[in-house]
Every structure is written in structure tokens, then in C-alpha cells.
Amino acid sequence: MRDKLGLIGVKVSCGEGECGSCTILVDGIPCTACLMLGRQGEGHELVTVEGIGGYENLHPIQQAFIDEQGFQCGFCTPGFIMTAKAFLDKNPNPTEEEVSIAMSGNICRCGAYPYIVKSVLKAAENIRNQQS
């Protein structure tokens, strides 16, 4: 995805599906792209962080990560955002504990977890406010 399509939000890190930095949505379900062969995506909707919003039109989750400083180096951020997107699509009014559990499959080497949780909670609030 990075090399052929230029989708640089799909990070290459562990290569073993352990860190979540390469998380994409496959038919709305978070999956680690490093464990997928290109052919496995055929016939499925694949969405990367580039597909939910861009510089001119940020998704509420992307904006919340900026507003709540939900990152330090930013390497893991696309994976967290995609995991949050799938989670909030199913649970638009989560508790802090539910967010922590949902994000537990992603690793942040900088330790920004409290800010990531705050970002997801803020994103949920922003999305609810947009819909009302």
C-alpha cells in the first residue's frame, strides 16, 4: 500500500501484526495490513487513514487527536485513529475503560496512552454533537 499506492499512513513497524501501526479497515473491521497479502483485499472495502479525511477536511477523530495532543512522535497515530474509527462506529458513547480496552491492540512507544484515550473520548463527543 505504501510503495504501490503511496498511502504513507500505513506504517511499517513490527511486521508481525503486534503493534497496530499498520491498521487499516477491511469492510469496517480493523486489520493489520502487514499480515495481509494484496490479493486478500480484492472484493473488500479497504480504508486507510488517508481515506477518512485529509488536510482540508479532517475527520472528527483526526481533529480530536490534534486538539487533545493524542500523539508525541506520531508514528503510531494512523493506526490508533483507524482503530478508534472502527470502535466509535460501533460504540458512539464509550466509557474511558471501553476506550482503553479498544485501543489495547495498538502500541505507542512514546507512552501517550492517556492522551490517546482523551482524544478518542473527545472524538466521540464531537461526532455525537455533529449528528445532533
TrEMBL record:
**Which PANTHER family does the entry mention?**
OXIDOREDUCTASE WITH IRON-SULFUR SUBUNIT
Q: Which UniProt keywords apply?
A: 2Fe-2S, Iron, Iron-sulfur, Metal-binding, Oxidoreductase
GO MF assignments: 2 iron, 2 sulfur cluster binding; metal ion binding; oxidoreductase activity
- What InterPro entries has UniProt attached to this entry? 2Fe-2S-bd (IPR002888), 2Fe-2S-bd_dom_sf (IPR036884), 2Fe-2S_ferredoxin-like_sf (IPR036010), 2Fe-2S_ferredoxin-type (IPR001041), 2Fe2S_fd_BS (IPR006058), Beta-grasp_dom_sf (IPR012675), Diverse_Oxidoreductases (IPR051452)
Show the PROSITE patterns listed in the entry: 2FE2S_FER_1, 2FE2S_FER_2
Check the record and name the Pfam families matching this protein: Fer2_2
Q: Which residues form the 2Fe-2S ferredoxin-type domain?
A: 1-52
Protein known as:
2Fe-2S ferredoxin-type domain-containing protein
